[in-house]
Specification:
single chain; 211 residues; 2 domains; mainly alpha; Endonuclease III, domain 1
Length: 211
Amino acid sequence: MNKQEKANDIVNILEKLYPKTPVPLDHADPYTLLIAVLLSAQCTDIRVNKTTPFLFERANNPTDMIGLEVEEIREIIKPCGLSPSKSKAIHRLSEMLLEDHEGQVPQSFEELEKLPGVGHKTASVVMSQAFGVPAFPVDTHIHRLAYRWKLSTGKNVSQTEKDLKRIFPKELWNKLHLQIIFFGREYCKARPHDPLACPICSIHGRKSMFK
C-alpha cells in the first residue's frame, strides 16, 4: 500500500467514525472563536470551554474587551495557563481590530497573523472554521499522528502541513483536520498506544476496524 492509498483508507475510516465534526471550542462568532483558539495554546479544549463563558460574559466583542484592564482579563483566563502573555495579546488584538478592521475579524491569513498571539495555526483554524476557507491547521497532535502514520517525515508543523496538503484533497481539509484530532484523542493517543487496536495504525494488520 503506497502513501496515497493509505491516505484514502484514512479518509474512509475517519468519515465512518466522525461523519459530523463540530468545532470543539465553544464560540458564537469569528471573534469569540479567535479568542478561544488563542486561549487553547498549551491548554485543553475542555479547560478553555470552562473558562470562556466567564470571559465572554464580561466581553464578547472587541469594544467590550478593551474596556477591561489587562489584569482583569488575566485573572479570568488564568486557568488556561500563560495568562500574562495571553491577556496582553487579547487586549491588544482587540484594539487592533477596532483600529484597523472596524471591529471585525479579518478574513485573510496575512492580516490575522499580524495580530498579537495569533500564529499560523490559530489563523488557519479561524479561516477554516469561521470563514470556510480551505486550511489545514496542524498542531502538535496532528504532527505526531502524521509521522506515526508515515504520511509525513516533517521535523516541524509547517512541513507536516505542506505534506498533508499534498496528500489530501483541498475540499476535505477543513473537516479532516478535526476528524484527525478527534481520532487521536479517542484511538491514537501518544501513550499508551496499541497499534493493533487502532483502526488506522492497524491498516496492514488483521484487526483493522474496516478491513
